[in-house]
Amino acid sequence: MFEILSEKIQNVLNKLGNRGVLTEKDVDEALREVRLALLEADVNFKVVKGFLARVKERAIGADVLQSLTPGNQVVKIVNEELISILGGGQSHLTQSSQPPTVAMLVGLQGSGKTTTAAKLARHLKLSGQRPLLVAADVYRPAAITQLVTLGKQLDIPVHSEGADEKPARICANALKRAREVAATHILIDTAGRLHIDENMMKELTELKALLRPAEVLLVVDAMTGQDAVRTAEAFNTQVGITGLILTKMDGDARGGAALSIRSVTGIPIKFIGVGEKMDALQPFYPDRLASRILGMGDVLTLIEKAEIAVDDKRAKDLERKMREASLDLEDFLEQLRQLKKMGPLQQILELVPGLSRLAPKLPADIDEQRMKRTEAIILSMTPAERRHPEIIDGSRRRRIARGSGTTPQDINQLLNQFRQMQKLLKQYSAMFKGKPPKMGQIPDFLRR
Fold first, then answer.
1. Within a 13 Å sphere around the CA of 232, how many CA atoms are in the beta-carbon half?
2. Residue 444: what pLDDT?
3. Helix (H), strand (E) counts: the chain
4. Under the phi-then-psi rule, with left for phi > 0, alpha for psi from -120 to 50, and beta for the rest, what region is 134?
5. What superfamily in CATH does domain 302-436 come from?
6. Any idea where the domains of the chain sit in the sequence?
7. What's the pLDDT at 446?
């Protein structure tokens, strides 16, 4: 996400950070490079112009140029202005005063509307709500089948009546069913088109008048750049949009749509899609995204992912074993599996401050390949070997290699890495006598 833009902006700001004194000329040169980076990222020209004007006005003030750390002050200003053009604070879904809350999902074909409806339903279910999905896209029969299939996978009810029924009739019946099943939210998957046309807008306007939705959410493909902005403007003018969901953000190395669409349309971004899996929909936080663009990571999102993936009881058991330096390969396997639940390694690295630059350099499938190989090796061991890896001799290595489809050298590499980790934990445990360290106590060898 934002790979190209992020790298260029970080390089520019790093140059400023290395200088003890800044002049107005230094700021102008840096902002010229930022301007080129934003335009190459397909950010709207007017948005770029306004952004740079505000940054320059604040950056050449006496409180910055005469500061002891002027470079850091400029980074702070850029961060704040990025947050501003992304929308300021988080925009939540609007709730109706009386349930159910109705949300219409609209957009062009190919934007990921049907999948996004299911992802949003899953998000609501995890937060304790009872969503009902409605298959109102009768022009693409595969959309009805797709939504019903996704609903079954997620154990979320789907109201569908086939491709011969009128969308208005389907939605009216869905309102009745929602009351019967005590649904708190109704998510309407409306029909899309390959392009904006009069019939499409007329149908959406009629559905909106019938349903009186609390939200009309436009689903747009972030990778289409300024086309996404123009689509949002057209839908907002003719139908009236209350929020945006940007899909395929994980494949958007430029970021033009995300950085333009709020400023140009005034419509808040409410969610972003960051992958194909059902858990790959995130609430949109402008401050977190700005932090990621500047290479500062996103610790809060990382914590939220970990809280979902990690079992509390197992986490406490692991913490105790780490303090006692008694971790074995079964624990190691459990941690690998929980890490996999958090998502691809590249996406996790993007969230870790200081490591975001490593993410684009990793092959897309590196985490899958290594984790599968490690998992296969450990699963090919006996319970005794997992708990006491020191008993693994040459013949056992060959048997494990055959069982896991690897080589004895792969087994050696894993065991060596595990021994190093155990040694580190013992040093840690001895240094702090089995207690977590206080701030400032962490030694150099653990910081590296």
1. 29
2. 40
3. 21, 8
4. beta
5. Signal recognition particle, SRP54 subunit, M-domain (1.10.260.30)
6. 3-86, 101-296, 302-436
7. 35
What superfamily in CATH does domain 3-86 come from? SRP54, nucleotide-binding domain (1.20.120.140)
What secondary structure letter does DSSP report for 222? G
Start-to-end Cα distance in the chain: 27
- Tell me what pLDDT residue 103 has: 95
What are the beta bridge partners of residue 243?
217
CATH fold of 101-296 reads Rossmann fold (3.40.50)
CB 435 within 8 A of CB 349: no
CA–CA gap between residue 52 and residue 77 (Å, rounded): 11
pLDDT of residue 443: 38
Q: In the β-sheet with 215-221, what is the strand arrangement from edge to edge?
A: 158-159, 131-135, 185-189, 101-106, 215-221, 243-247, 269-273, 281-283
pLDDT, position 200: 84
**CA–CA dist 244, 232 (Å, integer):** 8
- Which residues share a beta bridge with 217? 105, 243
Residue ranges of the chain whose pLDDT lies below 50? 363, 365-366, 432-448
Q: In angstroms, rounded to a whole number, what is the distance separating the alpha carbons of residues 202 and 173?
A: 20
Integer angstrom CA distances of residue 319 from 323, 335, 390, 435, 437: 6, 12, 23, 10, 13
